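Human:
If only I could read C-alpha cells as easily as an amino acid sequence. I am handing you a single protein, as its sequence and its fold in C-alpha cell form. I hope you can help me see how the letters and the C-alpha cells relate. Thank you; the sequence and its C-alpha cells follow:
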Amino acid sequence: MGNRVDVHNVVSGAAGSVVQAGTIHQVVLPLSPETPPIPQQLPPPVRGFTGRIEQLAALDALLPAPAPAPERW
C-alpha cells in the first residue's frame, strides 16, 4: 500500500450522470420508456401490380418453345 499512484478523472463538457468505479462487472440499462407506435391502418395497395395481361403476354412471347417430351420406354 505504500506505492500509491495518483489517479484522477476529468469530465469535460455537459454530462448527465457520471459514475466513477474501479471495476464494472455488469451493466444493466433500463428499457426505453417510449414504446414504438402501433400502426392503425394497412398501407395503401401497390399500384400497377395487377391487370398486367399485356405485359405478361409480351414476356411469354420471349420464352423459347418448350422442348418436346422425351419418349417413354
